[in-house]
Amino acid sequence: MVKKIIMQTYLWVLLLMLYAPIAIIVIYSFTDAKVLGNWTGFSLDLYKSLLNTGAHHSLMNAFVNTVLIALIAATASTLLGSIAAIGIYNLKARSRKAVGFVNSIPILNGDIITGISLFLLFVSLGITQGFTTVVLAHITFCTPYVVLSVLPRLKQMNPNLYEAALDLGATPMQALRKVILPEIRPGMLSGFLLALTISIDDFAVTVFTIGNQGLETLSTYIYADARKGGLTPELRPLSAVIFIVILALLIIINRRAGKEKKGI
């Protein structure tokens, strides 16, 4: 009994430490105080100010750039990672283990090392840094995560389904589209969401590949804003909206996954 109470207390303390900062940001997004922690009464002025793109043109530009880069990078990395996962799965056991180890290196490698490496690569190739280099960089470090998300679904799949489809007259492309893709779709969706989140969150790789053409993402905007001695108050409602949207997506996806399991 005592052990159970200790474990539950530990769990609730851990959850409190994880979500209390987010809760504080959400709560203080409903007051117009310039300084976080100074409650001046309930107000939606920060949300109204955020929607006024003229007043915060650079912040909204950074947000749009962040979302656009994340969507492109997540889509491309999902396609590349899924194809790579299928290729890795069909390798011999020893080769599969070796390639899997190589795939894990970018994940375990420090972001700053990846950022410097890509920076030096783009400079050596004479590529002007900007939107394109940031997207390429994000695809590079997001793809291994997609591979790790898709591989377990392939391992759970009946290996005879693909061969059975071929024996029944399907072409390899038809078997891929109608047999393998439906089986690995949950893994692809998980990989897409993971890549999307990682791309939005990234700073270290972005700051090394963004160049000096005036392009900004949320992470670089917040960094530059913090160096000035404070954060733009409108970042609070923006952060709250992003959190609520991601939370809603996770709830919808989990409910769909639960319904699919019940239907099986």
UniProtKB/TrEMBL annotation:
Annotated ABC transmembrane type-1 domain residues: 63-253
Topology term for the membrane: Multi-pass membrane protein
Cell membrane in keyword set: yes
Record-annotated membrane-spanning stretches: 12-30, 67-89, 101-125, 131-151, 192-215, 235-253
Matches recorded under CDD domains: TM_PBP2
GO CC terms of this entry: plasma membrane
Major localization listed first in the record, in broad terms: membrane
Compartments (UniProt record): Cell membrane
Matching InterPro entries: Bact_Polyamine_Transport, MetI-like, MetI-like_sf
GO biological process, one term: transmembrane transport
Transmembrane recorded as keyword: yes
Top-rank taxon, per record: Bacteria
Swiss-Prot/TrEMBL keywords: Cell membrane, Membrane, Transmembrane, Transmembrane helix, Transport
Stated family: Belongs to the binding-protein-dependent transport system permease family. CysTW subfamily.
The protein's name in its UniProt record: ABC transporter, permease protein
Species assigned in the record: Phocaeicola coprophilus DSM 18228 = JCM 13818
